[in-house]
UniProtKB/TrEMBL annotation, chains A, B:
Residue span(s) of domain MaoC-like: 24-114
Species of the source: Neoroseomonas terrae
Tree of life domain: Bacteria
Native organism taxonomy: Bacteria, Pseudomonadati, Pseudomonadota, Alphaproteobacteria, Acetobacterales
Gene3D superfamilies for this protein: Hotdog Thioesterase
InterPro entries, per the entry: HotDog_dom_sf (IPR029069), MaoC-like_dom (IPR002539)
SUPFAM superfamilies associated with the record: Thioesterase/thiol ester dehydrase-isomerase (SSF54637)
One Pfam entry name: MaoC_dehydratas
Name used for this protein in its record: Acyl dehydratase
Length: 148, 148
């Protein structure tokens, strides 16, 4: 169980949490890609053999969204999150359907509001690694607005 | 109709295309948020009144994914896109369900492979503006690998 954060002021740069694992099933990979990223290497296993990836892989937007949903459901920041306005996301390696990935959250930067308001900005880095080989498939820095 | 690109070498920095409009219906906003961004201001119209947004708004990940899907379906880069590995996305203003947004694509940067390989990197900037008031709700720079 993750202990939920109660304030932006609870956060310290470098602090990190392992948030457990998840996998994206083939059905969900295909459904997401059909709607949001209809490229052949996300939709058609046969055609994907001729792609750069050599096989069907999840849309990076799907990996990002699923990891973000996992983070929110972990409860870590849910009680103090009031929004966000930026994500810088990289996908160093592809993710195949049904591959288990481990999610980690780390505090990258904290900026309390100078005006004494009851909120501030936290940059959180979310990474996902394939459990089988440790390869990073997602490295995303999210700018959150959090309560103090 | 958009003329599909045939090669990375067709692209010139600053070149831009208007790719039409889209809207995210309330059902889809709720469905996406349930799975990928279950925060109350994306899920519960009543509770969202007390949020920073003052009303229910779409998840930024949903706006990004829907605009990306729209770009792919436009056919602009679909014939030459072989993957991508980075997105830097900002959401300067929120998007409400059923609000029409206009999507624009612009060539931000081109880096043909120096090794003479048949691919290169293109950074494309995708923006979405609310049609009603011109406010930008998404400003995303996507790093694509494109065929030459």
């Amino acid at each position: 169980m993750i202990e939920p954060l109660h304030s932006l002021d609870d956060l310290v740069p470098g602090q990190a949490w392992d948030l457990g694992t998840l996998a994206l099933g083939r059905e969900e990979v295909l459904a997401f890609a059909s709607r949001y990223d209809p490229q052949y290497f996300h939709l058609d296993a046969e055609a994907a053999r001729e792609s750069l990836f050599g096989e069907l892989v999840a849309s990076g937007l799907h990996t990002l969204s699923a990891v973000f949903g996992h983070v929110i459901r972990s409860g870590l920041i849910t009680g103090i999150s009031i929004g966000g306005n930026r994500i810088d996301s990289q996908w160093p390696a592809p993710l195949r359907p049904d591959e288990e990935i481990a999610v980690r959250a780390e505090v990258a930067e904290i900026r309390p509001s100078r005006s004494g308001r009851r909120l501030g900005v936290a940059k959180m880095r979310y990474t996902a690694r394939r459990v089988a080989d440790g390869v990073v498939v997602l490295d995303a820095v999210v700018t959150h607005f959090l309560r103090r």
